[in-house]
Write a structure and sequence with these properties.
Helix content is 45%, strand content 18%. It is of the alpha+beta class. Strands 8-9-10-11-12 form a 5-stranded mixed beta sheet. Helix 15 links the parallel strand 11 (317-324) and strand 12.
Length: 359
Amino acid sequence: MPLDIIRRRLRNQRLSGGRFTTPEDVVSWLGAVQAQEYADSKWALSLRMRRATDTAIERALSNGTILRTHVLRPTWHFVAAADIRWMLSLTAPRVSARMAPYNRHLELDAATFRRSERAIVRALQGGVHLTRQELKAVLHGAGVRADGAQKLAHLVMQAEIDAVICSGARRANQPTYALLDERVPPSPERSRDDALAELTRRYFTSHGPAQIADFAWWSGLTTGDVRRGIQMIDGELHQEVADGKTYWFRTAAASRGDDKTAYLLGLYDEYLIAYKDRSAALDQSRWVRMIRDPFSAPIVVNGKVVGGWRRSVKAGRMVIAVTPFAPLRRSEAAAIDAAAHAYAGFFGSELELSITVPS
């Protein structure tokens, strides 16, 4: 039987089949969840949960069972507090190496980072949570220039990469930072090989079937690291060739679920962003030709991207504009309508939906 990439990914990512009861279970299962767009990232968790609420996800982030920090590639990710230390120990050197050219351009060196991190630790000790702008004032007071959004962002990011700080509780809709050592209890250290094996296991269990290049893209690790990770857990993985491409995956427990449904995915949902090769679900040429808006997020029906959607809020109503590639079947339109109502309901809004097929 040919490898059914779409169905396996839908189920392994828990978009169909068995879903989780807590947001931290979702994040732990996936290993990390891209969280560049905050609202979209919370929606990504809810799609993989039973009876998810925005309040429950915000509570997990406020309590620190989920952290939002820079840990892969580099960009923002949600990561479970229980995983942050071993994951950073594995990925931080690669993230730092990728940031080095930009840091040199900004005239940020190791001495500057040491000075800034000492100042940040002093300011946050005792359970203090500060916004980025408040940290900027702290840095200026310590003689560290943080002029300009880029320089400040890189100073804060390095403190995250160095396991000094992580996300704190949000304050009036603003993100804050807290000391990692105060937010997350100490845990036994893992060897690099153990951490690499675990991240490899998480990825191919939750994202498979996937290629070596997919995992390297998602994790930011080298191809050599990826091959070594696969070798260490080789007995746990299945390997299959489809259309000349080699896919790796781990057989998860069978689950019941409807694969033939619609999803309004966020801009960076793991269903697409976690793969370098997205051709199984997305015809890139069609997407570029038909959906020119860079802020259009993908609509997925039966595992395939069938168009884009965009949201706005007007007079307290969630306005969702859908642009499919082609006219929809009645069943597809009904599934998209249900998905749009679920999205608006998650954020506690009434829905205004429009579907426009380009001429």
